[in-house]
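Question thread 4412

I'm putting together a teaching handout and wanted feedback from people who do this every day. The idea is simple: show students a protein as raw sequence, then show them the structure tokens that encode its fold, then repeat with a second protein so they can compare. Below is the first pair exactly as I plan to print it.
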Amino acid sequence: MQKILVARSIFPDVIERLKQYFDVDSNQGDVLAADELKRRLADKDGALTAGEPIDASVLAAAPRLRVVSNMAVGYNNFDMAAFNAANVLGTNTPDVLNESTADFGWALMMAAARRIAESEHWLRAGKWQKWSYDGFLGNDLYGSTLGVIGMGRIGQALARRAKGFNMQVLYHNRSRVAPEIEAELNAEYVSKQDLLRRADHVVLVVPYSKESHHTIGAAELALMKPTATLTNIARGGIVDDAALVEALRSKQIAAAGLDVYEGEPHLNPGLLSVPNVVLTPHIASATEATRRAMANLAADNLIAALGEGPRAGQAPNPINPDVIGKARS
């Protein structure tokens, strides 16, 4: 029986599914340290991960490893050059979290614009003594301009929500989407600089890469309106968190909503000292239905890629399909 490692705690029923096909080594405790991850992968044919870094040194320590299934859409934790060189398949879990993540991005954006977290903290601190006309004045979403940086599946889901709020939609993407999608979403393709200047609310939904590192830094924040908000539901590193702290502290922009951070789970300490930011711990996809769908899709990918189950040999979501059928090198 082939051996697999489940590197992160997941739903017990998904573990039971995997046990129908594999000898499962399941880590249901703390995140594995790098050396422990290598040790436990040494005799494994496959692995299910949820953000663990898999690079050339990890692959070299696991000579039998043929597939790593990531329980996420993003796979910046995978060194894909190393995967390709070793003929190891990587898979991910797109689509199943689009709507939940878009819902959460919308909630973060609205909370930032309407100062919900800031006012709640003030209330909990016992400071509410009277109503005042200028108490926690925020900015409207309805009738405003939404700027989406990254018009993929989740970006398009956000733009669909904007129609119900009568918002103008601007977007910037590596490539322009099809005209019929633009028409459906009533979305205008613009440069990043134009979007930042014009948008009332900017949402980031781009995958992380070397090219997208610090897509939003000091220069970009300086282009935004002082009444604008910035929401990041993409990946840590897309935003220069230190520059954002300064922009929030100086009121260069009005507010921000963040679900992802550079170096997470560690935060830039400045983010904890500014009141005009909503902070959540990377939970945009965290509904039970969505996380179950992600876990089961990750299992489906692993089962199929290792030649088991009804879709044997046909993983639903290969990242680097060119290595399929090639011997491990």
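The second pair follows. I'd like the answer to focus on this one:
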Amino acid sequence: MGKIRYSSRLRRALRICRWAGMLAAILLGWLFVRPGAAQDRLNVVFILADDLGWGELGCYGQQKIPTPNIDRLAAQGMRFTQHYSGAPVCAPSRCVLMTGKHLGHAEIRSNMQARRLLPQFDEGQYPISEKAVTIAELFQKAGYATGAMGKWGLGPVGSTGDPNRHGFDLFFGYNCQSVAHSYYPPHLWRNSERIIINRRPIPGHQKQPEGEVKMEDYVSENYAPDLMIEEAIRFLEANAGRPFFLYLPFIEPHVAMHPPIERVNRFPVEWDKEVYRGECGYLPHPRPRAAYAALINELDEYVGRVLAALDRLGISDKTLVIFSSDNGTTLPHAGSDHFHVGGVDAEFFHSTAGLRGWKGSVYEGGIRVPTIVRLPGRIPAGTVNDTPSYFADWFPTLCEAAGFTIPEDLDGDSLWPLLVGQGTFQRRKPLVWVFPESGGQVAVRMGDWKVVRRNLKARQPGEWELYDLATDPGETKNLAKEHPQIIQQAKEVLRQETAENPVFPLDLKLDS
């Protein structure tokens, strides 16, 4: 075939087209693959404490335990005064956070070991399903690096709830909440690999009725929280040049209490007049008050390390940082008149700051949690927000912050307008908790009204309770008899907002 010849006019036109194509390619490359382009997208770090009480941070009134890094975070961002966890205990609270569905619709509504119904698993909690969609999955699909370091609790490795099946490129930490009762466990998980970290692990539960209780008897080779924070810092360093979503569900200050000895020794010896011998579960400790303070102070140090890494990497101003807790502080125990579960002295630390109830309760002390949000240049520094909000709101909030389409089946509402002062925040429906544990409990918050009912599993359920939180945040005066119409409204909300869940059933008894 002979060589094709073009006219001079056509050759000029082709040259123009080639130059135009090259220019278009350059522009597209500049827009999508130029150095630093990925950094223009918002990063997210979500830090979740474990059983941290409403009053256990300096910025929420704590007087005995120093928390300078979290207090600095509050000074640089927005502190919420009426933010609620997803549930009064660990696993369901995390389910609400990850899926954006309140306890009336959540797949996981209480703590349950997977092996109870799925005997093929030797550790881990009952799993969320394959069809459950987490906020991490949306970030992953959008090209974000996704990591989780800490405690999972939503399904064993290899189950439908495996974190690698729900949006996390990297998971490192405790898959199982029960294993997380020990700070010196036999192993942690890196994705599907079981990593042995202690040849002589320390069990999370043990009593010592007699003899001297020594801190050194409950120490082993590797302290798991230190390994997890190191992994978190490596994740930040490795992904500073691209958008990322980092979930840090730390285990502090959940018992058992056995922080490193040098951290306990930072606190006054005079605090502890009585040795804790394990009579309220978990591990003994010779200085329980100092040990508990050390755990919270340790949590604060880890937060400080994350913030320092963001500063060092030059990405603080493009990283949304959220800090919260999965539920309130540890509840009382029949084994002692002052020690709570695990030896915590919540009265000494004024852990609920006057709120009623503890972990496991839908009263304020069980579900109102300290919550702080920072994004320099977008969220005004040193602000306080008293809008009622809860864990179900974070899924739509993060969607709006990152520019994702918000799924239609979520229960929460985006807090983004509140955070950045753009637009108007509107609550579509009341806040709802349907909790089968601790005798069966429900709660509904509608404006300043909060409706509670307990002991739903008892032959004679508890009476309906109604509190005006605007005037009675301690829930001391039951106004149910004065306002029966509010109780009826709450019943209707529960009727509409509670789907059947055969794994975690609860008869709401709405006709009584």
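Top answer:
Good format. For the second protein you could add a caption like this: Confidence is low (pLDDT under 50) at residues 1-39. The chain has two domains: 40-429, 439-497.
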